[in-house]
Amino acid sequence: MMNLAGWKNKTGAAAPFVVQLLMIMFVVEFVKGALLLTILPVYMKTVLGATAFVVGWSLAAQYIGDNVFRTPVGWLIDKAGYRLSMLIGILLSGGSVLIMATFTHHAWMVAACAMLGVGTAPLWPAVIAGTTEVAGDKAKGTIMSVVYMAWLSGTGLGPVVINFFIHGSNYGPAYRLLLISMGVVLLIALFLPRKPLLRESGEENRRASAAGAFPAGAAAMEAGADPLGEAVTAAGGGAAAAAAVAADKKPLGERMRLYMMEARASLREMNVSRLLFPAMFIQTFALGVLTPILTLYAREVLHLSPGQYSMLLILGGGAAVALLVPVGKLVDRKGIKGLLTAGLIFSSVSLLALGFIRQLAVVYAVVGLLGIGYALIIPSWNALIASCVPKEKRGAVWGFFLTIEGLGMIVGPIVSGKLWDAFGPSVPFTVSGSVLLLLLVLQWRILAKSRG
After folding, report:
1. Which helix (H) or strand (E) holds 207?
2. At the top level of CATH, which class does the domain 266-452 belong to?
3. What is the pTM of this model?
4. According to DSSP H, which parts of 270-393 are helical?
């Protein structure tokens, strides 16, 4: 029998608070992945009769809700604590799933997707800030690896598992599974503390020093940056803590204004090509273009069964996940340019071909190549962005960068749906692949400017 008393005294990734947050992360991402990648694109088009443009707007509404509310949610977590913030988010997310399962009008579906985005907005800031707060600076790298595994596992398994609960046009079992899943995380969230119990004497000071940079720093960690914002921690000691506490006492509007001023000042100081900003947008835009039409393409054009589509997702996603860590190590040893160039070429060629291939065996091979391409892109692209960010201004600049990348995930699904309706199912793949070729050229210019 498990020794509960001993478990309560665990630290790091095994700490109860961390385990609770990771379980919530896994299940919520499972639900979101199942909805956005599998259920909504097909359900709305085949059962509700929505156009691909409406489907695209629905998915964009989710990203809008998530991005708009992420910074205010960071402030809420800082003030109200983890339990209340996560409970509000989970209730909103569960309510959105209930609306999707109950109502059939397109406007309700768009509203429910926006509600889902608002509900999931607390997830990343809470999980990143909470886990790193408990783990401490020494275990930060380990805890981030665990967080990313929880995220990737949930996002990857959701679209695969949910296919086995869809029976023709009957989506009832699938929605019931998702509602039960949200009920489970609601129970877990009820047992979250308002604030984690920190055992190390120095942790309270570190938490105080992080408070001023919390909203930007928490969001920044989703892209791999330092959640505590080295703009605060580098100053060191009581002076940084006192400054953070003083800033925390200012009204929310004043803090938001100061944050934006700091971000603008940091961007002016950066010695990087201005092409970096459109490059960040089109990188996520290329991915956003695929989001609403990937499942539609598999079902309506390739006529894949749910089981075959699940195998397709496992092949592409499995290749990407399996190679992420080895590629990350290669980036550290060999540099960015070669791996990023190879990844963009593999991915763009795969996408340009995928829209015109109908033979299942060839589709599987191309999707596998696409997975390898994205495994090369993700670590090297993140390393490229991180290399452009001044360490002393990391929190503020990452917040701005995430906003730009979020816009790509908002605009991409809208454009994709319109392209599908107006020009046919192959065009979104052509646009996505072409955009990655443009990114290939831009990253060469950006790297040349960075070296200069």
Report:
1. helix 203-211
2. mainly alpha
3. 0.70
4. 276-290, 294-296, 306-334, 337-354, 360-388
